[in-house]
Design brief:
By secondary structure, the protein is mainly alpha-helical. It contains 22 helices and five strands.
Length: about 475
């Protein structure tokens, strides 16, 4: 993973290696199985994330009932994206979002994060950054700003994508603090607190220099993907769904002040909007503001109830308030259950067949080379063998669309033999992995310069012959 330069973000391998190295040390010292250690770490991180969300809820609400409501919605609710599932059949344009990670990251955040513990851990640190930023706005204690910068650095070092959201949060908070102090001595304020923020920026710069990576690789993918975006920019705010609308209603009803519940809402609302509009591919990172959006959506729901009670005093809304919250929670639960059941029913999406597993095991004994396969198989080849996959996960494969089109071309009956040979030669493909997933894409013609090296009931692996 450290040397895999076929991906758009080879530096990410460092964080994965460090995480699994830690797991290996725990396994070595305790004697527990690697699966046990993996699950133990995941659930410890989930507990840390839930505790962080509970602490953040205290910035929104003082009542325990509302805080528990927040935690339930955060853990099990649809959050931002579940309405796309409901509305996509009515508005076909929304169905395009299903091809992205929007549903996984925004539809049921915690469930998705069980497969990505590093992202889950970084989200917990981002929540603590928010808590300390909010407290700093309330009392201007430099210690809280130092803690906020420290949490941001932990989130960044743990999962670099957090740098995008963490820096936006800090920037909006600082600008808001300047706006509040616009008629006072803001120069000394900038001098005192800018040193702390600048120190954090210097540490990140030193780390990136030490890592010898692209100094802006954290932001590179967002801007790179923005050119590939196929959805209109207005779709992202719309796709946020009910919580976003409720948050808008709540913010429209409050006065700007330094009260924590309003401050944290303004900060996160602005961050979500910036991520949606200024960074088109920033929808990928919206999961990092998801907990706060859930918070001000609940605040918006209570604000809506109060607004109705003022105008219709005889209309009792208390019972349907909790009903609406339950609907908000349960609306995504059927999707979660159905989606997880689909994973089990259609296991080829996430699980290898026995033939594929045996074929990859054989590949691992064959030295090094570049293997052409479907993206799911390529993803497994990247970490179970010494080979480089030509095509893997879309966000980890440079020129993904181009390479996927080349795979279809090689498996297309209508394409000439010379064109297929040229593609294999230019890509320096060593092996072609032809299994059940690849058969769904197209037929592999044996008049290509291929020699069968391995076969079983599911898979045939061919070596590409060179002249």
């Amino acid at each position: 993973m450290l040397k895999d330069n076929s991906t758009s973000e080879p530096q990410d391998g460092r964080y994965i290696v460090l995480y699994f190295s830690l797991l290996a040390i725990v396994v070595k010292l305790t004697g527990m199985g690697i699966d046990t250690a993996w699950n133990l770490f995941r659930f410890l991180i989930i507990f840390f994330l839930a505790l962080s969300a509970w602490k953040l809820s205290g910035e929104f609400f003082s009542e325990t009932k509302k805080r528990f409501t927040y935690l339930i919605v955060f853990l099990f609710g649809g959050g931002l994206g579940w309405t796309t599932v409901v509305l996509a059949p009515i508005f076909p344009l929304l169905s395009r979002l299903h091809s992205t990670d929007l549903i996984y990251y925004l539809g049921y955040t915690v469930f998705s994060f069980m497969f990505h513990p590093l992202a889950m851990l970084s989200l917990g640190f981002i929540l603590w950054e928010t808590i300390f930023l909010t407290r700093w706005l309330s009392n201007e204690n430099p210690r809280h700003l130092v803690f906020a910068v420290g949490c941001f650095l932990l989130a960044f070092f743990n999962h670099p994508a957090s740098g995008v959201v963490g820096s936006i949060l800090a920037g909006i908070t600082f600008l808001y603090a300047l706006w509040v102090r616009r008629k006072s001595d803001w120069v000394s304020f900038v001098w005192r607190n800018g040193i702390i923020l600048g120190g954090g920026a210097v540490l990140i710069g030193l780390y990136l220099w030490w890592a010898r990576g692209d100094p802006v690789y954290v932001y590179h993918q967002a801007y790179y993907l923005s050119w590939e975006r196929r959805e209109p920019f207005w779709m992202y705010p719309f796709a946020m769904g009910l919580p976003f609308v409720l948050g808008l209603f709540a913010l429209a009803r409050v006065r700007f002040s330094r009260e924590p519940v309003k401050v944290v809402s303004i900060i996160f609302f602005g961050s979500a909007l910036l991520l949606s509009l200024m960074l088109p591919a920033g929808v990928k990172y919206l999961y990092l503001v998801y907990p706060a959006v859930v918070g001000f959506s609940i605040m918006g729901l209570h604000t809506l109830v109060e607004w109705i009670a003022e105008r219709f005093p005889h209309f009792h809304v208390k019972s349907w308030v909790w009903g609406a919250i339950v609907i908000l929670v349960c609306a995504s639960v059927p999707f979660v259950v159905e989606n997880r059941a689909t994973d089990i029913r259609e296991g080829e999406q996430y699980f290898l067949t026995r033939g594929e597993d045996a074929a990859i095991h054989w590949l691992a004994s064959q030295g090094e080379g570049i293997v052409l396969s479907s993206p799911p198989v390529g993803q497994v080849i990247s970490w179970r063998t010494h080979h480089l996959p030509y095509l893997a996960h879309g966000f980890l494969t440079m020129d993904y669309d181009k390479k996927q089109a080349e795979l279809r071309t090689i498996l297309d009956k209508s394409v000439s033999l010379n064109q297929k040979q040229l593609l294999l030669s230019n890509a320096r493909i060593s092996y072609v992995f032809y299994g059940p997933r690849e058969k769904k894409i197209g037929e592999l013609f044996l008049n290509l310069p291929l020699e069968e090296e391995y076969s079983n009931d599911d898979v045939v692996i061919y070596r590409v012959l060179t002249e």
